[in-house]
Amino acid sequence: MQLKLNDLGMIPADYPKVFFRVSTWNTGSFVADFTTEAEAIAASYASKNGTKYDHKVSTMKLMGA
């Protein structure tokens, strides 16, 4: 499932502790967050996002309070 940032563009408190972030290769710009790696990889393919190259997928882990 695609996750949504809050109105200020911050990670809300209800985000899972581990999620998968799709970002662009050339600038590292945020594209989207997903709950599963398979969904993130599928969304990163150039054929899906309309770019010349695939986007990158990173595993994000929330730490702290």
Q: Helices and strands, in N-to-C order? A: EEEHHE
Estimate the helix proportion, in percent: 10-25%
Estimate what percentage of residues fall within beta strands: 25-35%
Q: Which blocks of ≥5 consecutive residues have pLDDT under 50?
A: none
What would you call the quaternary organization?
single chain
Mean pLDDT over the full residue set: 92
Per DSSP, the total helix count is: 2
Distance between the termini: 24 Å
How many distinct folded domains? Answer: 1
DSSP summary, beta strand count: 4
> Structural class per helix/strand content?
alpha+beta
Main sheet properties: 4 strands, antiparallel
Q: How are the strands of the biggest sheet laid out side by side?
A: 1-3-2-4
Overview in brief:
The chain contains 2 helices and 4 strands. It is of the alpha+beta class.
